[in-house]
Amino acid sequence: xxxxxxxxxxxxxxxxxxxxxxxxxxxxxxxxxxxxxxxxxxxxxxxxxxxxxxxxxxxxxxxxxxxxxxxxxxxxxxxxxxxxxxxxxxxxxxxxxxxxxxxxxxxxxxxxxxxxxxxxxxxxxxx
Length: 127
Prior knowledge:
Elements: H1 2-24, H2 41-50, H3 57-80, H4 82-89, H5 94-126
Helix pairs in contact: 1-2, 1-5, 2-3
């Protein structure tokens, strides 16, 4: 049941983020860097499945490695598009769009990490 809940969360999170990223492009005139996290989104889905199997320390370590790989790869890709980010940041309405879509991304990440730490805490309390 937990795996279905996590996959459902992943699908909804992906759809919301993807739709906001599309809307932020302004008809194809910028903000394509908001799609960069989607290049490694498969790692998020694998991590969501791992959230249901956190009994093993090895699985917990693998979860953290997957999430860190997602962040590092996304950051490296963003470095390649920094001119777009700077250009968009300087547009009149660019800041609000970046902050809103970035906030949605961060909210989803915070939920994933909250579930991770809460699950570990509950498992240790049962041991």
